[in-house]
Amino acid sequence: MNITDTRVRSILIAGVLSLSSYSAQGNSFYSFGDSLTDNGISVREFGGAIGNAPGRYPGADGKFTNGSTWAEVLPGLSGLAFSDTSGYAIGGAKSGYTGFDDALVGAPTGFLTQIEKFSSDVVSGKKSLSKNDLIGIWIGTNDIFDDASLAALDTYVNNIETGIRTLQALGAHNFVLIGSDDVSLLADPSLAADPALEALSISAKTFNQKLLALNISNVNIYYFDVLGLLKNTVSDPGKYGFTHITSLDNCEANQCDTLSLAQQNTYLMKDSIHYTDRFERLIASYIANIINARNTLSVQSTMVGSAGIHFLQPLISRYDLQGIDIEARNQASPWTVFINGGVANGADHSQMPGPGLDPGKDTFKNNALSIGVDYRLSSEWTLGAAFNYSDIQSRQASKGGSNTALQMGQAAVMASFAAQGTFINMGLAYGAGQFDISRAGVFDNLAASPDANVLSAAVRAGQWFHFESVELAPVVGLDYWRSRISGYTEQGDSLLRMGVRGQQYEQLNASLGGQIGKRVNSHGVSVESLLRLTAERALTDSDRTLESYQRNAPNFNIKTPVNGANERPFGRLSAQVDIHLPSGWGLNLNAMGTFGNQQEDRSLIASFSYDL
Q: 3-state DSSP call for residue 37?
């Protein structure tokens, strides 16, 4: 086995291992089409009639490939359930009700006949169909073989549209649609040009263009350009692990059936018109990548919002301690400069129901640095301003190996009012930055760098009550952030590039709780400590819809619903210690963590200050 073959095998195996970890979530996959998708139905249901027919090429298992079809491989890569009886495709089928082998099996075998049979199975309860199931369709090749005239192409495409709309009426929402291949690409280059093959080539390209022009609302159609993959394979066969690529130099013509599967898979073609197991697996890997690509999306808005709120909350928390001892506050210098740095961890628990979407959480880490200044305008009012740089990283190893990074700069203004034990602390911040998104393709990574901005606001109010040794205060608060992310198109493999529409997401949280504070003075050193416990709840609807599309199929808009985390109350525990030296230097430590409702926000901030 050569190095290239080993590399391709490793890529395909790694794809299976990383993507097959997806939970199926009860979703199923059903396939329709011709011999390029047939997973052995002729043996199961027709006693091998097609397999015994002269000129047909299936093996003893009724498949037209030497291993697995793309329809058998795809479900394992996208967390979908699939059994032998989930495949309705049959060799020789055309896009209408008939196929080449109707006389052999004694019944019509066309695509629309397959749809009717599946519909009957759903209505009778033999099969179930839900909105989150996935339907795979690859049909039209036999139609073009039978009649390659351009006038007939509209009929073929209309048949496919009829099938999709029929399934949509039954409740289907997600479809894989594979375009036509082009066998003329596989002709021996030493042979003279064949006008018939040229006509097939033109018809295949035109057929695909007409498929891409379909306009069916309220469905997600994942289009795969198999013709593009075939062209890439022919131009660089070694990259894809093939050494035999022409239709004449196929596996059966070289009597390769006694060879190992790995050796058979050095051939692109199993026979003159069907593909080997390796190419079928490549098709499945590409389609799975297209479907699963949306896993990178939901965490983006959460990361932007986290940057805003984790910048602003520590800033206004610095003022909480100032309300404990107004007299000490009045004696302090009016100007204070500070620098703080720290780390925050968070998680996005949003759920995106549908094929290929991992229900697992996305965790991220926020490293941030802020500098600022406070000015005590009066005994009651303090004003402040700060600047921040945040570097947020999310590595989604369980979701195909994607990495999402965000670098953001922010500015904030703050204000604090404290009088007779009453305190109100507030802040407003705005930031802008850029993502660096990288996700694994089938061979190479895809990348994108959309812009992002965030507007965040926070207010906290309470009333200190003095007891013998401590101060107690009930507190209420509101935290708000609104994130915006520009639309973008990935760079990389043209067969996989995803385009994403602009995103906007906002969240408003209310909090209610209490805090306890204490101040100790010794030898001119002031130590203030605070512990706060609040119950919080999101007041806004966290559900939203993300819109994406494939760059080579912009007419097929993919809408992915995002169900936000459960909006029942959760808890937040904060602790803060402030040490102030006679020299004017100060140290502030602020730790925070949430619990309940799957919230996993945690942060630790250290701040150094100096009174001018």
A: coil
